[in-house]
Amino acid sequence: MDLQILIIQMLQSLSPSLDAPMRLFSFLGQPEFYLLLIPFFYWCRDPRLGFRLGILLGLSGGVNDVLKTVFHMPRPYWVSPEVAALNSYPSFGLPSAHAQGAVTFWGYLAANIRRRWFSLFAAVLVILIGVSRIYEGVHYPMDTVAGWLVGLAVLAVFLRLEDPVGLRLARLTVPRQVLLAFAASLVLLAFSGLALAALGDWQVPEAWKAGALERSGEPIDPLFPRDSIVAAGLLFGFAAGGAAQARTGSMCAVERRPGPLLARYAVGIGVTGVIWYVFGLAIPGGESLAAYVLIYLRAATAAAWVSFGAPELFTRMNLAGSVHDETR
Fold it and tell me: Which residues cross the membrane (predicted)?
């Protein structure tokens, strides 16, 4: 039997009491969880940090989905009856998006917070998020390790380029920044399309589809580039919104009272949820141009609300305080 399957079986045989905490750690690696945290930093702590986390989320997600398509490898529960499907996901497995996203998100926070205790906390969380995906049977150990390595590479490049690129972009007019943000999102989609085209006539094996459905009860459709479209939409929304927000700054620099900060977050995240839910109702099932467009618009609208709409509303509601531009 494959060594990686043995490792998964070993983890799954430890104790059923681990199911709940592993699901929790898995959730902590979900994009939806990051979309709860990024607004907190953007609205309540440090707009520059929140803005760049949003950009990093979109870029990392796009890179991950392209690599998944390039390698087009199955998840363990798709192909092995010895693996219990404690979770499910319709995309390919290599590299793990949870592992990669955890490294980029928490690694970037650690690089900015620069506290030993937080760096240790981030490292432990990154490991637990990766292990949780192996435990759930949705990733091979190789997928998780690859995700960590790709995440480190993306993080290193982002940390190296963020300041020089940010300074250069800040010299452009707002319309040009918005146009460039849209072009960047199209580049992500183009790479996704090229990766799919490179597969040629390759089709998902029927055995993978049958195995996934049998063991999880959920169908798979790994050739549907949903995650690439979401990543592109998030990138455009965060970048365009940040460019258009003329008065985004350290909104918490002069406002330390918990009441106004809580009001900002409650109002802002509530509208974010409504945007995500309402657009979700309109997205048709299956693959179609309408589905592609609405998935993109949902992500872009939610991200633009976080980076532009909500701060503007806070200003009108007298919740913004005295702000100055430091999103870049």
Answer: 24-44, 117-135, 141-159, 179-199, 229-249, 261-283, 289-308
